[in-house]
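SAMPLE LOG
Freezer: B-3
Tube label: C17
Construct: single chain, 572 aa
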Amino acid sequence: MTGKHNHTSHRRGLKHAFLCLVALMMANAVVATMWATQPVRAARAGAHPKQSAKIQPQIPKANRYQKNKVFLENADVLSADENISTDFQRLKGNVRFRRGDMFMYCDSAYFYDKTSSLDAFGNVRMTQGDTLFVYADVLHYYGEDQVAELRHNVRLENRSTTLVTDSLDYDMVSNVGYYFNRGVIVDNRNNTELSSQYGRYELATKQAEFSTDVHLINDKYEMFTNLLQYNLQSHIATIVDQTTILSDSNSIVTTNGWYNTSADDATLYERSQINAKDGKTLVGDTVYYNRKRNYGEARGNVVITDPNNKVILDGDFGYHDDNAHYSYVTRHARAREFSQKDTVYLHADTLCTLLNDDSVRILRAFNAVRFYRSDVQGICDSLQLSEADTIINMYRNAVVWSDERQVSGEEINLHLNDSAADWATLPNFGFMTQHLGEDYYDQLSGKKMKAYFHNKELRRLDANGNVMLIMYPQEEDSTYNKQITAEASYLQLLLKPKQEVEKASMWPDVQGEVTPLYLLKRSQLYLPQFRWYGEARPASPDDIFRQATIALPASGRRSLSSSLNTNQAPKQ
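STRUCTURE (predicted):
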């Protein structure tokens, strides 16, 4: 019985030992399979062929400031299996690495000591002094390339700047971070948020570049573009692509320039455009705009458009103040006023628009003023056009032409109604003349004059104060054979269509005579103040830019040198 029992026990012991051996082999096989199939990118990039030397699970105690060397500083659990790989160690719990003055933390990691590479998982954190903090779920660091790949819930904090993205590559050699799966940078100091599909951020220079669906937001405006460069230290955005900037007061469209988001001003190039909230636009080759002061300047082919008030200003230099509702252009300046059926083309050294105390838009022109409209043309030293009542006020050396009629005076006020002149006043001496043919001109002068027009024709004329008249009445056969001269204190002239005189009244004391043409001397053809300024008359919209100056005679309150030979009788 004893021998049989011992033999049975021995067989049971062998069977138990065999089962234990099989279990151990299966466990080793499972572990080996699990470790061999880990998707560790750094292992594939940094692994070397298996070495015969056994890895010792210990923390290095060498100099921590070796260049580009990563050291393991702490781990609760450290393990390695040379049957799986001799290139990495597995770490768990309070894992901490060090590379120079940068520390890296995580819950678990694979550490490749030979290549100073690692794969970190869970609560990943990178710190460098008190200026750089990086957070992520996963970190792959490649020691040979000195590149860190951070994935999922990535947040980089650099002083007052925060970058949030899902995928960030950080090059430690150039100190540059790249994101490529949508990212947002917040400039806390300037209260600015920048988002884009792709981005590049230089930590040393604070220079960033954003591309694809770029959107900049702050408390005053929003910017939309597909490519933008931005410095988070100077807060200057460099615009290199089609860009739109929107705010409550206006919008800006540009393709080239820079925008200081801190000072809220911009310098823009390549025909940039500012669109004001009230519809006005400012366009130029170069545009400077300050949002805080709400004004802009433009140089080169400047165009200021005011569609609400039907005015376009253009020139080589322009300025617009949206707060003051004031705009001006100069240097080859031109205004086009199209509130009526026929556009008025106006040129002067300087043109400006503004609102008066009654909120009425006023157009003003200074120095060498010339204007053209199909039915009326004029020149003067300065001019004002009120858009409320469409009155053109002309000052100093003013001349207006309509058909063959010329009106000149120190001041002319011309009222435009629809597509034609309605009435005109000359409050400080006026001279009216109409060319009949050859050397013959109807002429009228007086201290004050007012003319009324209908269908572009003069229908009534009132004059008072030292009234002087020369007329050549037309005979029934449409010929002229006599001259009528008259002087009085007052005159009223009524005309029919085609400028036929219906009635002429002069009072109280009238002096005059009738002289046949064949008895006239040349000195009797013109009043003392007569001048015909036809050579200075604008002939087309483009002719307003032609240089031409005139001077009224001394009795017309002013005598200036003239580029025209006005001391001679008109040439035929």
